[in-house]
Design goal:
Blueprint lengths: L1 H125 L14 E2 L2 E2 L2 H14 L57 E5 L6 E5 L13 H12 L5 H10 L6 H28 L2 E12 L9 E11 L4 E7 L4 H7 L5 E5 L4 H6 L4 E5 L1 H10 L5 H24 L4 H27 L7 H11 L1 H4 L13 H6 L1 H10 L5 H19 L4 H11 L19 H5 L1
Parallel strand pairs: 5-8, 8-9
Antiparallel strand pairs: 1-2, 3-4, 5-6, 6-7
Helix pairs in contact: 3-5, 3-16, 5-15, 8-11, 9-10, 10-11
């Protein structure tokens, strides 16, 4: 029992030893595995350390990259701001460039205007004054209107040779045929010579003017009065003007003629009288002119009434410098206006002075007038001309002048209008004058020939209006005439109407020359006096009367002439006193 138990113990002990050996082997294996694990852990720790170091490097690089990104973002923002500023600057530069281009275009346009104005000024001062075309042919041949073929060929040949149009003027009559008084001087030969005949020579001689005093002794006498036993004191009437003025009508007429007819200032007249041995104060000469104008004023008022009565007027205005002592400031010069009204049928002209040229002044000048009114394109006339009782015509010559002035900038279009339209229209008027047509014949000629030309002209103008550049001389010319087309063509309705307003402009020439010589009027009253004299002298010229002869006669008669018959002394009705006495 015991051996069996020992055997069992030994078996258990061997089994335990074998178990211990197996465990030792396992433990050794585990130790190896543990050492391997430690080695692996060390390797992994090294790897982790390396990875940690790399991670730190990466974090550092990341921080650097983030910093760079931040800097790049900040730089990008700055660049965006700079780009926006540059874009704004570019827009501003574009706007500035566009503005500069517009300013340059405006300056170029202004420069063209200045050049055009300068060319016109040079032409006005040094160039040809006439607006007539130099072309010898008007290119119109309508049953007697214009040139014949032979005349056209001759005119073309003359033009090509001489470069200007031949203008035939009426010959001046010979001096011997002008009715001058002749004083015969006989120069005899020496005594004892044999007379064979005569050799006659004429010499034109001028005598110096001379002045003298007339001592007029008037008798004073008594004459029985209507009452019995009473007498009245009577003095023989003084001939001529009933005034105490020492100047005779001949002297006053001479002074007025010298100033307003021959444009001689009073100061020069005063010097001339001094050289002739007569000293007259300057203030006295002014008083004599004022007296002459005041004496003639009733006749001027009658002319104004005539202007309204005949219902046909050409009207224009021009400037006149006037001394106005009541004006504030350093300059006492006032720009006044002389209004000129002409009736070309009755052949009289009226000047009227006004301080301005506005609507109020026109209403005052043309007060109560109704009928046919012909003016230039000045806009202030339109209000008065627009009334129902006024036919307002516009000047064709002013329209032509715009095209004439545009020849420098648009020669082709301007020349076409001048040659194709204006020249034929004026050729028709010239032929009517040459053939001395009656008014009905003139109206028929205009309706037959001028109206078709005007209709074609209007179509051409409308086509050019859409074609030409705005704000150029040729555009202004086209717009000017189209705006006034109804008034410009009104002359075709009646034979007594004129195509332009040149007739009244010609009457302003004397005033223009006088204005250039005596520069200004001494007062508004003096300007009104000048209007009176210019009116009467201008009417004398239209009537073919010698103004100074008329003035001498009228100044000597007007004081004694019946007031209700003063119209007999107007130039258009005047007959010299000697003729009436005969």
């Amino acid at each position: 029992m015991g051996d069996k138990a020992n055997t069992n113990c030994n078996d258990l002990l061997e089994a335990a030893l074998h178990r211990i050996q197996a465990l030792s082997l396992e433990n050794a294996m585990l130790a190896q595995q543990t050492a391997g694990l430690y080695n692996t852990i060390d390797a992994q720790n090294k790897v982790i350390y390396q990875l940690t170091a790399e991670n730190l490097d990466l974090n550092s690089q990341l921080q650097q990259h983030l910093t760079i990104v931040s800097l790049l973002e900040q730089n990008n923002e700055n660049l965006s701001g700079q780009a926006a500023m540059q874009q704004q600057l570019i827009q501003e530069l574009r706007a500035s460039t566009q503005t500069d281009h517009l300013q340059m275009a405006k300056q170029q346009k202004d420069l063209d205007k200045i050049r055009h104005s300068r060319a016109l000024l040079v032409k006005d001062k040094y160039g040809r004054k006439s607006e007539k075309s130099l072309d010898p042919v008007t290119e119109i041949n309508l049953k007697g209107i214009g040139l014949t073929e032979q005349e056209r060929l001759e005119a073309e040949a003359y033009f090509l040779q001489h470069k200007h149009v031949k203008i035939e003027k009426l010959p001046t009559p010979d001096i011997l045929e002008q009715g001058l008084p002749v004083k015969t001087i006989i120069m005899e030969g020496p005594k004892g010579s044999i007379y064979l005949g005569e050799s006659t020579v004429y010499k034109l001689v001028r005598h110096e003017a001379w002045m003298e005093l007339h001592k007029i002794v008037r008798h004073v006498y008594l004459e029985k009065a209507a009452d019995f036993g009473k007498f009245k004191n009577i003095t023989v009437p003084l001939p001529g003007m009933k005034t105490k003025c020492i100047a005779d009508p001949t002297v006053i007429a001479q002074i007025l003629a010298d100033k307003y007819l021959y444009h001689l200032p009073l100061q020069r007249q005063q010097k001339r009288y001094e050289r002739e041995g007569v000293q007259i104060p300057y203030s006295t000469l002014c008083d004599w002119i004022s007296y002459g104008a005041r004496t003639l004023k009733p006749l001027w008022e009658l002319l104004m009434i005539e202007a309204v009565k005949y219902r046909l007027l050409h009207c224009d205005e021009t400037t006149l410098k006037v001394i106005d002592k009541a004006k504030e400031g350093n300059s006492k010069l006032h720009r006044g206006y002389m209004w000129v009204m002409l009736n070309h049928v009755q052949n009289f002209v009226v000047f009227k002075y006004a301080k301005g040229r506005g609507h109020i002044d026109i209403d005052e000048v043309l007060k109560d007038f109704s009928g046919y009114l012909h003016t230039d394109g000045y806009g202030a006339y339109d209000k008065y001309g627009g009334s129902s009782n006024v036919k307002h015509a516009k000047c064709m010559s002013h329209c032509r002048r715009y095209f004439k002035n545009a020849e420098n900038t648009s020669p082709k279009i301007a020349k076409y209008a001048l040659v194709k339209f204006f020249a034929p229209l004026y050729a028709i008027e010239e032929r009517c004058r040459q053939e001395h047509m009656e008014w009905e014949q003139i109206e028929q000629a205009r309706q037959k020939y001028a109206v078709p030309i005007l209709q074609a002209f209007q179509r051409w103008l409308l086509f050019q209006q859409a074609k030409v550049k705005p704000d150029t001389p040729i555009a202004k010319a086209v717009n000017y005439i189209l705006k006034r087309w109804e008034g410009v063509t009104l002359y075709t309705q009646e034979g007594c109407y004129l195509i332009d307003n040149n007739s009244v402009e010609r009457m302003i020439r004397d005033l223009a020359i006088s204005r250039k010589n005596w520069l200004f009027a001494g007062s508004h009253k003096s300007a009104a006096n000048a209007a009176i004299i210019f009116s009467l002298f201008g009417t004398c010229k239209l009537q073919g009367i010698k103004p100074q002869e008329w003035l001498c006669d009228v100044l000597g008669r007007i004081d004694s002439h019946p007031k209700d018959k003063l119209s007999q002394l107007l130039p258009q009705n005047w007959k010299p006193a000697k003729t009436q006495a005969a």
